[in-house]
Amino acid sequence: MPLEITAAADISGGLVMHLVTSSAEFASLKPAWLGLEAQSADPCFFQCYAWCGHVAEVLERTFASDYMAIITVAYRDGVPVALLPLSRQKRTGIWQLRTLDDPFGQIAGMVYRNRGDAEALVAKTLDLLRERKLVDVVHIDRVLAGSPLEVVLRQRGASVRGEVGSPVIDTAGFADISALKSSRNKKTMKNLRNSINRLTKAGDHAHTAALGGKSVAPIVAATLRRRTAWMEARGITAPQFRSPAHDAILVGGEAWGLDAIRAGFELQSNGQPIAHQWGFVHQGRYYAYMSATDPTAALLSPGRLHLAFVIEDAMRQGVRAVEMLTPASDYKMVWTDTARTLHDVVLPLSFKGRMQDLIWGRFVRPMMKGLF
Question: Cα-flanking dihedrals φ and ψ of residue 83, to 5°?
Answer without folding.
Answer: -140, 130
